[in-house]
Amino acid sequence: MxxxxxxxxxxxxxxxxxxxxxxxxxxxKQAPAAMPMAAPRVFTWNGVYGGFNGGYxxxxxxxxGRGAFGSPTGGLIxxxxxxxxxxxxxxxxxxxxxxxxxxxxSSGTAGSSELRYMNTVRGRVGYATDRxxxxxxxxxxxxxxxxxxxxxxxxxxxxxxxxxGIEMAITDxxxxxxxxxxxxxxxxxxxxxxxxxxxxxIARIGLNYRF
Length: 211
What we know:
Elements: H1 2-24, E1 47-61, H2 64-69, E2 73-86, E3 91-108, E4 111-127, E5 132-148, E6 152-169, E7 174-189, E8 195-210
Antiparallel strand pairs: 1-2, 1-8, 2-3, 3-4, 4-5, 5-6, 6-7, 7-8
């Protein structure tokens, strides 16, 4: 009996010692959940934009103006504004307008003629490859010529334009572009009694900011 009592006391002491040791062990904590990674921002061409453009134009005056004034050349500079919508399949459609001051001019046997102002309102269709957007464009064009044939007159000509270009986003907000346009302005009467319009090739570069 004494042996059993001693064994019982030893077992009790062992249990008490084990419980105390376990209480001193550090508690196991669950590892913190991993923070979700932010998805990379996807660039799109959506939105309103505005900016500046400048370039060079050359071509021919038409009808009587071809012989009277010759072939005009010169520069132009102005403002651009528009809106793009990028579809889920990466096609981009939009509308763009601009107004430019110019000095595309020449002189001939009858005097001189100068395209002083030009404006366009065009549709654009392009396909975006991330930050690069090649496009085609077409729409309305108008321009004011200043004719000097002994007497002077400013005449507004309606017309149309078509062309193509490429635009590249250099940041999320800023983009640069280059484009070429064909512009056809209708014939109108000039002071000496003839009629003249214009056929022009326009090469422009531009800088746009997307709002």
